[in-house]
Design a protein that fits this description.
It is a single chain. The longest helix is centred in the C-terminal third of the chain and has 11 residues, at 301-311. 11% of the residues lie in helices and 37% in strands. The protein contains seven helices and 26 strands. The strands form five sheets. It has a six-stranded mixed beta barrel. Strands 17-18-22-21 form a four-stranded antiparallel beta sheet. β25 and β26 (402-407) form a beta hairpin. The two termini are 26 Å apart. It is globular. It is mainly β. It folds into two domains: 2-36 and 70-233, Cathepsin D, subunit A, domain 1, CATH 2.40.70.10; 245-407, Acid Proteases (Cathepsin D, subunit A, domain 1, Beta Barrel). The chain binds 2-acetamido-2-deoxy-beta-D-glucopyranose (3 copies). One 2-acetamido-2-deoxy-beta-D-glucopyranose binds at residues 74-76, 88-89, 98.
Length: 410
């Protein structure tokens, strides 16, 4: 899911991992400004190799600040006609209360339902702050609005919104605990969240925040790996502090994040091809956001329709759900629809990330079951998610300011 804010970008850089208003921490899709960010973070560093014991330290210091080893977190797949989201366990509080959260590279902060949420969160587990001896109420209230939702439908107005109250407590993921992590209790949510089989959202943006920033300051390498498998394969996994080389074959290909250091995971692409063909509309530079919390592809209406025009003239906008497109289900399974998105590696070599034809249909529309929804939605941003990521092992390297991909080993 992509969190959308139009607030002042300067605050995104506030140099603290402590509790803040989410507008200051969450990925601001429209607030990603190179100039403002660069003036704060200075020139972009070259990719760095993360060495765990690079300087001599006394044995006492070693005990105090020992490097943490990477940890694997199993993920479950929310499958509802198509693969929608991958989620895993996280605990909050003392003693720990367990929640399932989507590890969402499209947002930055942790949100879980609080007991205050009541009926609006009745399908989710709620955090009871009175049962945690380490809980601190932050007292600040705010809202967070997402630009993509949990399923495959486009976002209309504020239909994906959480009301929040700030808090601090111990958070543990993959058996790695961090004290005094800022997060948000959900005090109300739009009904669109109700069917979710998970409780909350853990943002995993390109600027480490929350529990992950805490782990990095304890010596965990500042990268993570994602193995987001289709439902039929299972065994999805998040690796914190490294990547799991048993989950892919062949070398990883790395591409640098744009020099406009921001909290958004994004890469510049030189063009899109469909079934080996391109057009003047498609063959141009655009920046793709990589969002593990979104299943569909989101493109401008012009780009979406340029791709659909190559696939089939029978793919048409579905006026019942603006921003979506569909085709009679009887036609969709036989259509070639291979989408190659061209990127450039750190070595300067072109490579494609490819979405196979099998992703074209995301299943029948509820409003018209004979019409199948196709995977690209039209909106005001450019984003790829689960339908691409599940065909690759992906490495999200915060310290190296780069992303890596290797074909999945299944
Ligand atoms: C699938 O999605 C629909 C719409 O969000 C929801 O009503 C339904 O409960 C979901 N089914 C499952 C099994 O999650
Ligand atoms: C989360 O933990 C529960 C036990 O508390 C376990 O049953 C479940 O399988 C775990 N979920 C995942 C995705 O690991
Ligand atoms: C990427 O895909 C396009 C279209 O299929 C193809 O022409 C091009 O050779 C591919 N590039 C690489 C590096 O494989």
């Amino acid at each position: 899911m992509v969190a959308i804010f139009c607030f002042s970008r300067v605050f995104i850089l506030a140099p603290t991992f402590k509790m803040m208003h989410p507008a200051f921490l969450v990925l601001g899709l429209f607030a990603v400004s190179a100039s403002a960010l660069n003036s704060h973070v200075g020139p972009r560093a070259e990719p760095v190799k993360i060495t765990l014991a690079s300087r001599k330290v006394s044995s006492t210091q070693l005990l105090q600040r020992r490097a943490l080893s990477p940890s694997n977190v199993p993920l479950a797949d929310y499958f509802n006609g198509t693969d929608l989201q991958w989620f895993g366990n996280l605990t909050i509080g003392t003693p720990p209360q367990t929640f399932t959260v989507v590890f969402d590279t499209g947002s930055s902060t942790l949100e879980v339902p609080g007991t205050q949420c009541g009926a609006a969160c009745k399908n989710q587990k709620t955090f009871d702050s009175s049962k945690s001896s380490t809980f601190i109420d932050g007292g600040r209230t705010s809202t967070i609005t997402f630009g993509t939702g949990v399923g495959v439908d486009p976002v209309i107005g504020n239909n994906w919104q959480l009301s929040l109250r700030s808090a601090t407590d111990t958070v543990s993921v993959g058996g790695l605990p961090v004290k005094s992590v800022g997060f948000f209790l959900i005090t109300n949510q739009t009904p669109t969240f109700a069917p979710d089989p998970f409780d909350g959202i853990q943002g995993m943006s390109a600027r480490a925040q929350g529990f992950f920033a805490g782990l990095i300051s304890q010596g965990l390498p500042s990268l993570f790996g994602m193995f987001l498998t289709p439902n039929s394969v299972g065994n999805a996994e998040l690796t914190l502090g490294g990547f799991d080389s048993t989950k892919f074959t062949g070398p990883l290909t790395f591409a640098s994040l744009p020099s406009t250091a921001s909290s958004t995971w994004e890469l510049s692409s030189s063009g899109i091809s469909v079934n080996g063909k391109t057009t003047t509309t498609l063959h141009k530079t655009r920046t793709f956001i990589f969002d593990s919390g979104t299943s569909n592809i989101v493109l401008s209406q012009t780009d979406a329709e340029a791709i659909y025009a190559i696939i089939s003239p029978n793919i048409k906008p579905n006026s019942a759900e603006p921003g979506t497109y569909g085709i009679p289900c009887s036609q969709v399974s036989t259509l070639p629809a291979k989408i190659d998105i061209a990127f450039t590696s750190q070595q300067g070599t072109p490579f494609n990330l490819t979405i196979p034809s099998s992703e074209l249909s995301v299943g029948p529309f509820r409003s018209n079951p004979s019409l199948c929804q196709t995977l690209i939605n039209a909106d005001e941003f450019t984003l790829v998610g689960g339908s691409l990521l599940k065909h690759y092992y992906s490495v999200w390297d915060i310290g190296g300011e780069r992303m890596g991909f290797a074909p999945n080993g299944f």
